[in-house]
Design goal:
The protein has two helices and two strands, in the order βαβα. With 81 residues, the protein is of the alpha+beta class.
Length: 81
Amino acid sequence: MNPPFFVVWRRHDRAPKLQHATESEAEIAAGRLAADHPGEEFFVMAPVASFRVPIRELDPIPKSPPEPRKPWGAYTRGRWP
């Protein structure tokens, strides 16, 4: 896992976009946000685990030849295949 980072999050809000390098930076940001939004609770969070599944390489789908097209005149003259 990469070096730890910290984010500030408010419940029922969008996902955090800013990552803080230290816990103290995140705590300062959380305090500033809490002062700007009285009554709201902000959390300082850090990852505890990370998971990634590798992308599988897929086999290319073979292309089949296109079906022959019927001439447009066959449809306009009332003759149906």
